[in-house]
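ok trying again, last paste got cut off:
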Amino acid sequence: MTAPLSSEHGLTALPDHLHGFALTHMAMRRDARRLVAAAPTLSPAALRTVADWWHEVRSTIEWHHHSEDELLWPELRRLVPGVAGAGAVLDGDHVALDEAMAEVSRTLGAGGAGLVATAGRFDALLHDHLRREEAVVFPAFTKGMTVAQYTTVESRVISSAGIGRLGFILPWMFDGFSRRETGRADATIPPPIRLLNTTVLRNRYRRRWGQW
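nice, full thing came through this time. structure:
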């Protein structure tokens, strides 16, 4: 029996054109685990840095959700009518995740008490959501949309981030993954932006967020 398409175990089994989308999900899982690991031992001195980092991560996930809801899902439903019945996965899960992220923000803003619980809840919801979402959309992306159709709407999604947001998103997506893992996704980025990402943006990201 063929294993379901999923980013949960890496990119090897996924078509090249889905690697960027999958890396975004992998980065979300990575940072949910990072927060869970830090929560029990987070020092008061590190709290502000973690709160600032979390603000960027949360804003990026919210952008990802918004771009799905406003751009990707409507095109998916137009081209793959059978996916319309998955509304609870494509829409409802985002509400619960947004609430969980807001809880983490409130906890960090209140001094970190209770972070173990709120970080754990977010991590569990995120992993469940991504598993459910990929089970619906990856088959639809590969069987119901052509590569050209997918890459066209993906370009619109990327453009919706704006230059300022991309300055965080690009190094964030590739953080902690090997060049062998990310090479196919990297190849889809225009050469000038790719160079910027592997130099200025990556170095700035590591200086700001690589120490806590």
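cool. Residues 6 and 134 are 6 Å apart (CA to CA). The chain is about 75% helix and 0% strand.
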